[in-house]
Amino acid sequence: MKGFRDFILRGNVVDLAVGVVIGAAFGAVVTALVKDVLTPFIAAVVKQPDFSKLMFTINGSQFLYGDFLNALISFIIVSATIYFFVVLPVNRLLTRFKGAPEAPKKTDDLRLLEEIRDLLKSRRADGRDPDQSVGKI
Is the model's pTM score more than 0.85? Predict the structure, then answer.
């Protein structure tokens, strides 16, 4: 019994349960938005609220493409709604709270190479040839 309690009370399981409940509630909100607001708006523009009755017949076989159109339009509307009303605002909030990313730390090798580069630049700027100041072997 203790092992089961430890399993249930682990952070991952509780977080997952909360995520599923919030996801289901959010799904209901998005479905209501699409069904009650966006689909009637499209129906008012297109002047046909439901495409499920659309079909064509070839050699006696009926192809009900209206249901497919309804599902496709619903998918596009739900995807756009989630993107514009959830993903974009959350990304903006995350970038606002994160601030500017930290510059990567330089290694000792990189610092040494930069120092050599700067010394060579300063010698060229002084009019000295950096190759002539190097000892000959």
Answer: no
